[in-house]
Prior knowledge:
The protein is an all-alpha fold. The protein is 76% helix and 0% strand. The protein is globular and about 60 Å long.
Amino acid sequence: METISTSSKGNRIRLLDILRGFAIIGTLGTNIWLFADPGGALSLLSLQEGIGAVDALVNGFLAIFTNGKFLGLLTIMFGIGLELKYQKAMRNGRPWLRMYIWTMILLGLDGLLHFIFVFEYDVLMSYAFTGIIVAFLVGLRHQTLNWIMAGAATIHILGLMLITVAWVWIMNDETILEEIIGLFQETEVVYTTGTYLEQVQFRLSDFIGLRFEAIAIICMNLFLYLLGIRLYRAGAFSQDEKGRAIRKRLVVWGLGLGIPLNALVFVPGNIFDLASRYLFAPVLSLGYIGLLAFLLEKNALKWILARFEMIGKTALSCYVLQNILGSILFYSWGLGLAPVGNVYQVLGAWALITAIMMIVAQLFVNYFGVGPLEWVWRKCSNAPFKKVG
C-alpha cells in the first residue's frame, strides 16, 4: 500500500502534491478553451445549442467534471497549505501574521503581474486576498470557525441566487444577450489580431470588470479555505483508520452527490448554469480528493500520480507556465491559432501543454528541488524574517 503522508524526503504530504498537480492540470482543462476561443467565455458557463454530437459530448463532460471543479479543489488546497504554515509557525515560534501576510502580498503581486502580462483570468490575486483574511481567523476556536464558514456560505449562496436571476433573464433576452456577445467579440478581436502591448493595455483598461469573478467568489473562497483547514485538522490526510474513513466518505459523498448535482446543468432554462460552477463544483472537488487518495493507497496509476506529484511540487511555476504556453499557441503575437473550432485541436493543445509541464516539472524537481517561481517566492518570503525567532 502506498503512503499518503510522506514523500521520499519524509517531510511532505505526498497526497497534497498529487492533488495540487491534478488541480493545475484540471485548471488548464478549463482555461484552454478560453485561449482557443478568447471571445467564448459564455460557453463555459452555459451549454451550447446547435453543435455537433462530439462537441456536445465534450461540452457536457466539461460542464459536469471540470468547470469550476478544479478551481474549488485548488482553493481547498490553499486552505490546507495555510494550515500547514500556521502549524509550522506555531511550532517554531515565528511571527505568524507578519510572515503569512507578507507571503500573501507577494502572491498578490505575482497574480497582478500574471494578470497584466499573461492572462486576465488569474486566480492568484483572489487567493492572496482570501489568505490575508483567513490568516486572522485560523487561530480561532473550531466553533467560531464553523459559524464563519456558515456565514460565508450563506452570503455566497444568496449572492449566487441573485446573480442567477439576472443570468436567466439575460440568457433569455435576445437583445441584451446580443450586446454581451458583442462585447466578447471585441475581446476576441484583441486576442486574435492585436499586438502583445495592445492585449496588455486591454487587460489594464478594464481591470475591475475582468476581476469580477475573482471578487464575486471571495465568500466561496473563504468557506473553502476554512474547509481545507478543518479537513486537515480532522485528520483527513493521516494514515490511520480515521483518515481512511474520512477519505472514503469524501469519495462516496463527493462523487455520489457531486456528479448528479453538476448534471443539473442540463436542466433547460439556464437555472443551474452558475450553480454548477460556483456551488455544486466544490462538492465534486471533495470527491476528487477522496478518489486520488484511494488510487494512491491502492498503488494504482503510479506513473500518472508521480507526474501529478512533480507538477504539484512546482504548482505556481506550472500554473504560470501553462498560461504562457497557451498565449503563445493561440494569441496573435504567438502562433495565432485562435479561434479554434475543432474540439480535437483544443484537446491536443491541452495534452501538449500538459506533457510540457510534466517534463519541465520533473526536470526542476530533479535538479533544483523546486520550480523557479517557488524558489524566488521562498527567498522573498523568508528574507525579512531571517533574524526573527
